[in-house]
């Protein structure tokens, strides 16, 4: 795989790209934090404020849960999966040997960031720009994904390990009820983070030449 060598004007660009390269998925986590809760809150808050959104619609909604509040998320997920087992939708052996240990591993971490999209807030912009009405929901998800990535990157930069999960719609109703959240907030993803207890798995790449093209480049 061939990579372009270059010099950046701003040293922060190199730092940013090194963070991008080092970000990994960590599943082995424990309930410890290398930074203060206020610092974690600042990371999440800044992402809510500064990540761009289409037409500045600002549709992302984010909830930060730490310690015991974080554990509640995964208690909800375990309970939801137990309901599927009881209903015969999930084999009990699969739940006991694979799913439950995985959920308990998430529960053992320090915190969870819940990422939501408020699609109802898009009603005025959809009416104003009717020709693009069917595009605004995907645009909102794209903005939300940027928030997820920024928080993940910043937390890892501060010494956390993290992994991104998607347990909707199984946990949605109970999540909304437990923290008394607006019904218009639709859960999209859950970012689990804590102090890493093991290395991340090997990261592999498809050839970049098959996924990237450049035209008009100066010699």
From TrEMBL:
| Matching InterPro entries | Frm2/Hbn1, Nitroreductase, Nitroreductase-like
Q: Name one GO molecular function term.
A: oxidoreductase activity
Recorded hits in Gene3D superfamilies, A to Z, give: NADH Oxidase
Keyword annotations for this protein, in alphabetical order, are:
Cytoplasm, Nucleus, Oxidoreductase
Q: What is its main location?
A: cytoplasm
Q: Where in the cell is it found?
A: Cytoplasm; Nucleus
Q: Output the Gene Ontology cellular-component terms.
A: cytoplasm; nucleus
One Gene Ontology term from the biological process aspect of the record = cellular response to oxidative stress
**Per the database record, which ranges form the Nitroreductase domain?**
20-194
Q: Which domain of life is it from?
A: Eukaryota
The record's comment on protein family reads: Belongs to the nitroreductase family.
Q: What is this protein called?
A: Nitroreductase domain-containing protein
| Gene source species | Penicillium arizonense
């Amino acid at each position: 795989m061939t990579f372009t060598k270059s010099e950046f004007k701003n040293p922060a660009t190199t730092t940013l790209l090194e963070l991008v390269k080092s970000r990994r998925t960590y599943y082995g986590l424990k309930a410890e934090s290398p930074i203060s809760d206020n610092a974690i809150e600042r990371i999440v808050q800044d992402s809510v404020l500064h990540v761009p959104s289409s037409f500045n619609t600002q549709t992302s909604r984010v909830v930060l849960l730490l310690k015991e509040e974080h554990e509640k998320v995964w208690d909800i997920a375990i309970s939801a999966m137990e309901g599927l087992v009881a209903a015969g939708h999930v084999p009990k052996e699969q739940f006991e040997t694979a799913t439950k240990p995985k959920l308990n591993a998430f529960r053992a971490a320090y915190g969870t960031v819940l990422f939501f999209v408020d699609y109802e807030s898009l009603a005025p912009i959809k009416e104003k720009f009717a020709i693009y009405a069917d595009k605004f929901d995907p645009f909102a998800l794209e903005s939300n994904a940027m928030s997820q990535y920024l928080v993940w990157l910043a937390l890892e930069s501060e010494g956390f390990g993290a992994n991104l999960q998607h347990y909707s719609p199984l946990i949605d109703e109970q999540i909304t009820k437990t923290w008394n959240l607006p019904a218009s907030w639709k859960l999209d993803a859950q970012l689990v983070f804590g102090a890493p207890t093991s290395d991340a798995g090997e990261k592999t790449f498809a050839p970049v030449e098959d996924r990237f093209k450049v035209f008009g480049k100066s010699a």
